[in-house]
Every structure is written in structure tokens, then in C-alpha cells.
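[audit] Reproducing an earlier prediction to check determinism. Same input, same settings, fresh worker. If the C-alpha cells differ from the archived copy the diff job will pick it up downstream; this log only records the rerun itself.
[audit] input (144 residues):
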Amino acid sequence: MPKEKKEARPISKRNFISLETKIKILDQLKNNERIADISRHLNLNESSIRTIRQAEDKIRDSVVSGSSVLAKVTARPRATIMEKMEQALTVWVEDITTKRLPIDKNIIKQSALKIFDCLKENSELSADDTSHKFVASNGWFEKF
């Protein structure tokens, strides 16, 4: 007997939910709107809404620490220490370029590591931030 071919499952695409949308969802939940109503309105699974509710502290901290709320690619909250490090690094890079000093990728990556270590030692961080590891990789640099 020949084997029957199984029908291929339709490949579902992962939906990225911006931080702006997540904040709106959290605000709706605070106003006692039902999860089912929110999910129907936004065309999301109820489990996605529950997951967002569970990560409320991280999401709100990420927005407070400076993540661009409107960024389309910012779907996940990032560690606060990373946000602070990148803000400080941006200021440093702008200062170096206004002084017309030479700068390259390796110098920026080394400075990012120094700023990260300094922030980790000197600030009061949450448990997530103190355990966060940072490697100034090429991938990180390209996204920065």
C-alpha cells in the first residue's frame, strides 16, 4: 500500500505587536475590558493578550527607559540597562563626531562594553538587568 501524503499545514506568520499596541492593550485591561473583546477587536489570540498582561512590568519599564513606542521593530521589551547603555553611547558617538575625531566600529563596540560595565556596577538595577549579559557583536552593532 502506498503511503498517504499528509496535507501540509498552512504556515502561519508570526505577528509582531509593537510596544505602542501592547501599552494600549494594557491600558484597556486596566479599564476592565475583557480579554475576549480585546482579542476580537485586534484580531489576536487571547493567549497573546494574557502573555502581554503577564509581562506588563517589563513592557512598561522598557517604554519608560526610552524605547521608541512607535518603532515597528520593537516588539519585545528590552532590558533597561541596554536602553540606558545605547542612549549613553549615542550621546558619546554624537560628541565624538561633532569634535571630528576618528571613530570606527571597534571603538564604538569597546565603548559600548565600557558603558555597559559602568552602568552595571554603578546603578540600582533589577534582577533581570544584573544578570543580563552583553556582547558587542557585529549583529548588535548593525542594529544599533
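[audit] rerun output stored. Observation attached for the diff report: The mean pLDDT is 79.
[audit] end
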